[in-house]
Automatic annotation (TrEMBL):
Membrane topology, record value: Multi-pass membrane protein
Stored InterPro entries: ABC_transporter_permease, MetI-like, MetI-like_sf
One of the GO biological process terms: transmembrane transport
Gene Ontology annotations for the cellular component aspect, listed alphabetically: plasma membrane
Protein name per Swiss-Prot or TrEMBL: ABC transmembrane type-1 domain-containing protein
Ranges for domain ABC transmembrane type-1: 89-302
Family: Belongs to the binding-protein-dependent transport system permease family.
Subcellular localization, as worded in the UniProt entry: Cell membrane
Keywords: Cell membrane, Membrane, Transmembrane, Transmembrane helix, Transport
Record SUPFAM superfamilies: MetI-like
CDD domains listed in its UniProt record: TM_PBP2
Amino acid sequence: METIVKNENYRIVLKRKKNFKDKFGSLLFVLPFLVAFTLFLLVPIVYGIIISFFQWNILDNSPVFIGLKNYMQLFTAGSYVNEVFFSTLGNTLFYAMIAVPLFTITSLGLAILVNSVISTLTGFFRTVFFFPYILSLSVIGAAWALIFNPGAGLLNALLSVIGINPIAWNATPQGAWTMIIVTSLWWGIGFNMLLFINALNNISSELYEAAEIDGATTGNKFLHITLPAIQPIMLYVILTSTIAAFNLYGQPVLLTKGGPGTSTKVTMMSILDEAFVRHQLGSASAMAVVLAIIIGIFLLIQYFFTKRKGG
């Protein structure tokens, strides 16, 4: 009896040691990510929130704790930061309302088309549409600035061939936003397209075969098989596109510089101007925190709406 008890205790000790080694090994695998996440994301977020409670001029480097005054000033009608923040927030919302559905629908449609071509060409089209995503934004902005150039741009040259007069794209808000949206779409559509292609390839062909036997149309198969099956990926694309839309910065800086006037000046531009042009780190941090809260609210609304609609 004693031997049995001792053997059982020995097995328990070995099992505990094995579990500890497994957990320690798993921790070593995720440790680099945890360190990078802490240093480059968590610490800056916490530090930014702390800075928002200070009046801090970057030139004299003498922060003064003022509590919630930066936030109160931000929501005080008539103040400089209130007018700048909410006017540029309106431009950001305008871009997000157009870009998010446009990017989602276009990338899904492109994924369906690429998936429909013969298999020998699928890899080629994937590479072609994904290639712009690996380029830096500065390269993309410079290239499309030349394409949209009113005097010697490729686009106006093509329009003149069909009898349309050259368009000064950056002279009107509509033209300037067209530049930003087209450039952003061309740059980022390939990544979302690949996500949708992978989701489409994971759908069982038996479902489509059974639907065809039942006499389902192409539209019915798309609505009742394809869309429910790719819902998780679609939700991911919508959420990441929303985050990217609210963090829009490089395209308007490179293409329009926020013009004409301030019609394409977005929130990230006003935050960086507040920090590095007016040198007010505290109020800039408060603006960034409020923007993050607004993004979070939009993400929650989209998440619950999409999940409820998907059943």
